[in-house]
Amino acid sequence: VSAVLLDGKAAAAVVRERVRAGVDRLRGQGIVPGLAVVLVGDDPASQVYVRNKDKAAKEAGFEVRTVRLPSTTAQSDLAAVVRELNEDRGVHGILVQLPLPRGLDAARIVDSLDPRKDVDGLHPLNVAALALGREGLRPCTPLGCLEILDQHRIPLAGAHAVVIGRSMLVGKPLSLLLLERNATVTVCHSQSRDLKGIARTADLLFAAVGRARMVQGDWIREGAAVVDVGINREPDGKLAGDVDFEAARERAGAITPVPGGIGPMTIAMLLSNTALAAARIEERPAPVQEMRGAAR
Ligand code: NDP
Questions:
Q1: Of 120, 203, 242, 244, which residue is the catalytic one?
Q2: CA angle, residues 38, 284, 17, in degrees to nearest 5
């Protein structure tokens, strides 16, 4: 039996529609939500990502400002740009496209973001908020993974979720979100023994590794939902996920493709986070001020 295709483009369109409605509501109150995208250097993949985010944000009704800086930008100059955006009342979301060129300290830049505007959810206060189950901004890719499952009514509570990968961008926050949603979570990484054996026990299998087709068909439990986060460039220029899609779809109950799966979901959740940030900043600034205070 072939798996149900979890179509990221379709699911992203649903999110974007929801965001548009939120943006319209804000605009009705005279608030124009603004997103600033900061791109340093000329990494080709980052250029493509930034272009896509810029376009999607404009379509959703955001005011978008893309700040392009040369790869030779000094840490202090980048920090000054972030400071300005932090203070700018017209900017509700700031995204600094990672990775930064060599010589720039990404952690220090992320730490300097106003956590209320940190739409990537990477600021330590947002990471802590996730771990503590408090209000904050959650990272976009993990949010996209859950959103697509929710839209297909695939239950998380009580399910055994296996997450392969433990990065701060994907695997770790994803595992916390799954736990928050009452899944039983196993997190695997490069030191995990018997990856295949663990993967085979998953009701929900998430691959966020960065190795083309590492997850083979026989790693998949019959009927499992498979979410492939990986984006790997093949020698022929094509994109491949971390999962062997053709083999996996014969066993899985549902599966995301690459491309057209979690990629579009990530952008949609960035828009969703930006609308959320704008609403929180504009509609109830008081409690969040305390959070900012704590950052200093
Ligand atoms: P990282 O390289 O930061 O993390 C990879 C993780 O995979 C690490 O935890 C690493 O373990 C683990 N790993 C590496 N090799 C193995 C192995 N042989 N067996 C088991 N685990 C292994 O990558 P990211 O999390 O940033 O990204 C993962 C993938 O997702 C990439 O392909 C990336 O391009 C893609 N991606 C896609 C996005 C989207 O929008 N669809 C967004 C973000 C990322 P250890 O910690 O032990 O080193």
A1: 120
A2: 60
97 is catalytic: yes
How far apart are the C-alpha atoms of 11 and 265, rounded to whole Å? Answer: 7
141 lines ligand 1 (CB under 6 A): yes
Per the annotation, the verdict on 120 as an active-site residue is: yes
Instruction: Name the token pair of 72.
Output: 């030779």
- CA–CA gap between residue 136 and residue 115 (Å, rounded): 8
Q: Around Cβ 238, how many Cβ atoms within 10 Å?
A: 11
Diameter of the chain measured on Cα atoms: 57
Structure tokens at 262: 């979690």
Per-position pLDDT tens, the chain of length 296: 699 999 999 999 999 999 999 999 999 999 999 999 999 999 999 999 999 999 999 999 999 999 999 999 999 999 999 999 999 999 999 999 999 999 999 999 999 999 999 999 999 999 999 999 999 999 999 999 999 999 999 999 999 999 999 999 999 999 999 999 999 999 999 999 999 999 999 999 999 999 999 999 999 999 999 999 999 999 999 999 999 999 999 999 999 999 999 999 999 999 999 999 999 999 865 554 445 444 43
CA neighbours within 13 Å on the CB side: how many for 67? 19
CB 270 within 8 A of CB 264: no
**H or E segment to which residue 204 belongs:** strand 204-207
Residue written as tokens 């993990």? Answer: 142
Closest CA to 138 of 47, 154, 147, 112: 147
| Residue 53 is among the residues annotated as catalytic for this protein | yes
Q: What is the dihedral of CA 9, 10, 11, 14, to 10 degrees?
A: 120
Closest C-alpha to ligand 1, atom 36? 230
Residues listed for the chain: 296
